[in-house]
Amino acid sequence: MKIYRRYLAREVSGAILLVLVAFLALFGFFDMINEVKNVGSIASYQLHHAVAFVALRLPGRVYELMPVAVLIGTLYALSTLARHSEITVLRASGMSTKKLLSILLAVAAVFALVTFVIGEVVAPPAERFAQQLKLQGKGKAVARELRSGLWVRDERSFINVHTVLPDTRLKGVRIYDFDQNARLRSVTEAEEGVYVPPASWRLSGVVRTNISEDRAELVRMPDMEWRSALNPDILSVLMVSPERMSLLHLSAYTRHLSENKQKTQRYDIAMWKKVVYPLATLVMVALALPFGYTHNRVSGVSLKIFAGVMIGVLFHMLNGLFSNLGAINSWSPFISAIAPSAIFMLAAVGLIGWFERR
Question: How far is CA 42 from CA 37, 52, 91, 108, in A?
Fold first, then answer.
C-alpha cells in the first residue's frame, strides 16, 4: 500500500475510534445516571448491578453509534487535512476523487464488518444477559405484554404464561387446546414449567380439564410432559428488542410467527435492517467526502462537526421513522430498511458531483 493510503487510512480510523469512544463515554454516563436512580429502591439492586448492566449494554451502543461515529470521525479527519492543505497537495499530486473515495470506502468496509460482527455475535447475548441481570437484581420477572401475561399461539393451542423468569422458567401456565373445528377440547393449568431439550417442557402442579360435548372431566397430575414449539429462544425476545436480536433468532421467531399465521412485519423489517445497517458506514464516508474539499480555519472545522452531529441525528431518526411507517402501512420490509441509507447515498452522490463541477 502506498504511503499516502496508509496515512489517510490511519488518520481517518483514528478519528473514528476517538469519536466512538467519546460517544460511548457520553451514552454510558447517561445510562449510568438512569440506572443509579434505581439503586436502593429495591434492596437487592445494588450499585454493582447498575455498573454491570451499563457495561453489558455497551456492545449494543457500539452497534447503534458506529455509522454516526464513522460520519463525524471522517468529517473531522478530512476537515483537519483540508485545513492543513494536505488534501490540496494530494489532489495536486494526481489523486482523483475516485481514489480518495476508494480509500475511505476501504476504511469504512472494515468498520462495517466490525459492526456486523458486533450486531450478530456480541450485542445480542450481552443485551439478553444485561436484562436478565437487571431482573434478577430487582427480584422481578420478565415484563408482561398484557395484564394477564404473555399470550402465544402454537398451531391449535393458545398458551397463556403469567410470568417468565429470567432463567426462562414459566410460572402460571395455561394451555387452551382447540380441535380442528375451533371447539375447546381442554384447558391445562400448571404452577410451573421447566424446558427439557430438545422440544418439550416439564409441567408441575398440573390440573387439566377435558371438555367433551356433554361433560367436563377434571384430572390432577403432579407433573406432565408438554411438547410445544415454544422454547427459550422464542421467550428471549421478551427481553431483547427486535433491533438488538441476531439474524438467527429473528429468523427463528419470524418462522414461528408465520407458521402460526401471525404478523411478522416488524421482525421482517428488523431482519433487513440487520443486513443493511452495517453498510451505512459506507454511505457515511461518501457523505463526508465533499467536506474534505473545503478550506476552513478552526471555526470551520467546528461547524462541520456540528453539521455531522445533526446529520447523524437525522439518520438515526429516519431509521426509526421508516421502520415504524413500514410496520404501520405494511410497506416492503426491504424498502423500509434501506430507505434512509438510500436517501443519504443520493445526497452524497449529489454533493460529490456538485463539488466536482466547481
Answer: 11, 17, 62, 45
Does residue 89 belong to any structural domain of this protein? yes
pLDDT in tens, 307-340: 777 888 888 888 888 888 887 888 888 998 899 8
Range of the structural domain that residue 174 is part of: 150-234
Flag whether 33 is in a domain. yes
- What's the structural domain count of the chain? 2
Is 252:267 a contact under the CB 8 Å cutoff? no
**pLDDT tens-digit readout, 141-178:** 444 444 667 777 777 888 888 877 655 778 888 989 88
Residue 207 within a domain:
yes
User: Does 185 fall in a domain?
Assistant: yes
User: In this structure, are 132 and 188 located in the same domain?
Assistant: no
- Its pTM stands at 0.72
User: 283, exposed or middle or buried, with CB in 10 Å at 0-12, 13-18, 19+?
Assistant: buried
Average pLDDT over every residue of 69-89: 84
Exposure string (b/e) for 215-224, b if CB count within 10 Å is 16 or more? Answer: eeeeeeeeee
